[in-house]
């Protein structure tokens, strides 16, 4: 993981993705992966990037975390709305179906 946290520019992300075998993030818990995703979004100022660069960063996070693109899309939306990412599993739905 130290190698991954040293990535600071989009050019470094491109070089990382061009490597043949990018390792998955070995983390103790889902919360630590969420913290990594949140810090990465903040570090690159994701919400201010161009669409092409957002896609690049999302591909990077997909490869590193092992999450699906859809899951990362949900996490990015949560980060945009609340400024943080937290585990919502185990909670009742936000609204009930009538």
Q: Any descriptors?
A:
98 residues, mainly alpha, 57% helix
Could you describe the 3D structure shown?
The protein has 98 residues and is mainly alpha-helical. The protein has a domain at 28-87. 57% of the residues lie in helices and 0% in strands. The chain is built from 5 helices and no strands.
How do the helices and strands line up, and which of them pair or pack?
Layout: H1 2-5, H2 10-18, H3 30-43, H4 51-65, H5 69-82
| Structural class label | mainly alpha
Mean pLDDT over all positions: 86
Q: What is Rg?
A: 14 Å
Shape: globular
Fraction of residues in β-strands: under 5%
Helix content: 55-70%
Q: What order do the SSEs take from the amino end to the carboxyl end, as H and E? A: HHHHH
SS elements, strand count: 0
> Can you count the helices?
5
For the termini, the CA-CA separation is: 46 Å
Major sheet, described briefly? Answer: none
**What is the multimeric organization of the chains shown?**
single chain
Poorly predicted ranges (pLDDT <50, ≥5 residues)? none
């Amino acid at each position: 993981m130290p190698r991954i946290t040293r990535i600071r520019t989009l050019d470094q992300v491109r070089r990382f993705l061009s490597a043949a075998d990018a390792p998955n993030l070995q983390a103790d818990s889902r919360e630590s992966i969420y913290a990594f995703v949140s810090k990465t979004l903040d570090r690159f100022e994701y919400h201010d990037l161009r669409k092409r660069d957002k896609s690049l960063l999302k591909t990077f996070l997909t490869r590193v975390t092992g999450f699906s693109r859809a899951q990362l899309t949900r996490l990015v939306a949560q980060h945009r709305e609340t400024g943080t990412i937290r585990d919502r599993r185990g909670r009742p739905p936000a609204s009930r179906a009538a």
